Every structure is written in structure tokens, then in C-alpha cells.
What we know:
The structure is a homodimer of 148-residue chains.
Chain A: H1 19-31, H2 37-44, H3 48-60, E1 64-67, E2 71-74, H4 76-96, H5 103-113, H6 119-128, E3 134-135, E4 138-139
Antiparallel strand pairs in A: 1-2, 3-4
Helix pairs in contact in A: 1-4, 2-3, 4-5, 4-6
The structure holds a DNA duplex (30 and 30 nucleotides).
Amino acid sequence: MLxxxxxxxxEITGLELSPKKVEYLKLLFRKGGVVRTTDISSSLKVDPSTxxxxxxxxxxxxxxxxxxxxxxxxxxAGRKYAEFLVNRHNILTLMLSxxxxxxxxxxxxxxxxxxxxxxxxxxxxxxSMGHPSVGGCGRIDHAFxxxx
Amino acid sequence: MLxxxxxxxxEITGLELSPKKVEYLKLLFRKGGVVRTTDISSSLKVDPSTxxxxxxxxxxxxxxxxxxxxxxxxxxAGRKYAEFLVNRHNILTLMLSxxxxxxxxxxxxxxxxxxxxxxxxxxxxxxSMGHPSVGGCGRIDHAFxxxx
DNA sequence: TGTTAAATTTGGGGTATATGCAAATTATTT
DNA sequence: AAATAATTTGCATATACCCCAAATTTAACA
Lengths: 148, 148
């Protein structure tokens, strides 16, 4: 259990986490509070043992507080990181929705590639769209936009 | 050496190849004709042995004609697939360039995530932009747009 | 409270992607 | 033909996923 985190929001590139870890973080953010292994594994449709391993990884880098047999919860750093991830998803979804894709399509596409879009790109896209408060899949916060 | 290909352009989703294999195919397309292992490995900054392995993989699925110690060349199917890959890159680059990113940034971002954007999304984006003939990184062909 | 049932973790194993090094091989050049 | 350059093969590593079976822990309940 770490009380520090290898990521300080100021130096986030947005490219630190693998696609699956991004999914886990967004899920923990959506659920809020302590989330049980089974809950996660059934949401993500993976074996519980896979969840245990991934959550342990996230805990080892300080994004998650994990108590074995109890559950997992975002740390403060994890929550901030997850906020960025959700914003990124929503901004990209909003952007793509301007090109004739349906809502489901848009979300599906973005879910596939979002992990590879940098924070600085997101900042610029967000700025260029006038800092919209509602994205394709939910509200957008602007606490993490560099370019305001 | 296969004269058939597991991909028929009509059923292409755009998600068949890993990011690195996409790079190889786009490179072979740009270079044209028979390309030597060293040429590829120096362009992509990987060890020649890595290139040999990847090219062999591409040959095994019928996208590349490969003669050991001689070089690699796209098959007809490979050329068509690579055309799609280049178009996808150019369309996505053009799209992103509308959001305040510089040319280099745009190309860099797209290169990171393009492998995860489906052909059907590209078709729609392309259609929505009015089938532009020039993208962010080069010309765009429309032979592969479903929605014309 | 002890026993069972459910949830969870551990350990092992597997696939896919991607990489490099060293040694062996093939091609080219002289 | 011998030397050199290019290339391949075999081996090894690393990351990111994944699942299964066995062991463990927690929770329930009788």
C-alpha cells in the first residue's frame, strides 16, 4: 500500500497506462468507493484472478488502494488520473460524433484507441471545441486542461 | 509464398494488424518495389532480425512476397491493404488537424492510434469531410470508401 | 462456534506482440 | 576462392493479456 504515486498530474502524458488498465481505472471511477473483485471481473468480463493481478499492478504504482479479500478503491492520485481518462474519453467521443458516427459506434471506436491519445492533444482538441461541458459519453471537467 | 490472402478487401475491418505490422506495410507501400531487410530495419529503427521475423509474419498471411536474402514486396492484396492504411492515416491526420494541433503533432498522434480505428469509422469520417483529396500527410484515394 | 459456502488469491501455464544478441548462413565483391 | 557484407536462425527477454485449478480467506448459518 503506497501513499505516494509515481504520477504527478502535472507530468501526465496520458500514455502511461495500457488499454486494459485504463478500463479498470475508468470503471473504478464510475463505480466509486470500494469495489469488489467479482464486481470488476464481471463488468469487464474477465476471470476474477485476472482482476486480482491487474488491480495489484495498479496498486503497486499508487493509483489504487487494494485490500486483499476486501476490494479496491482509487487513491487520490488514481481518482485524478481517472478523471483525466474519463474526460479524454468524453472529449474524443464528442469530437468523433461530428463525423457521422452513431453514439454507440463513436464510444466503441474511442474505447479502442483512446489510450494512445496524449494529454496535450486532448488539451488542444478541448480548447479548439471551446471547452464543452458535455461530451459524447458524459460531462467534461476542465480542471486538467493546460490550455484554458 | 502464398498467392492467396486471408484478407479480401471487402471484408476488411481495419483492425486486423498490430501497430507495428501497420508500420511495415505503410513503409513498404511508400518505398515501392522490393525492399531490403536493412532498408526496413534502419527506417523503423529495429534490429534486422526483428525485421526478418515481422516480414515473415506478413508473408505468412499473404500481404507480402518475401524472398530470403533478397527482400520483401507487397503482394497485390498487401498493396490494397496498405493503400487503405495510408488513406486511414491521411484522413485521421486531416481530421485532427482541425483541432489546433501542429502537423508534426497530428501525424505523431495519429501514428500512435490509427491501428485501432475501424474501416467503417474511416468511411464515415471521410464521407463527412466531403471526400477530401488531400489529407494531413498526403493524398487520399477513395477507392475504399464504402459510403461514397 | 464450528462447518459449509462463496469469494478471492496464488501459482502455473499459455498466447500474442515486440525486441535484441550471437552465431550461422548466404550473397556479393574483389 | 577468400573476404566482406547482408541476412537469417536460434535463443532469450519483456510486456500485456488471459484462464484454470488449488489453496486461502471471509461470510453465513445452523
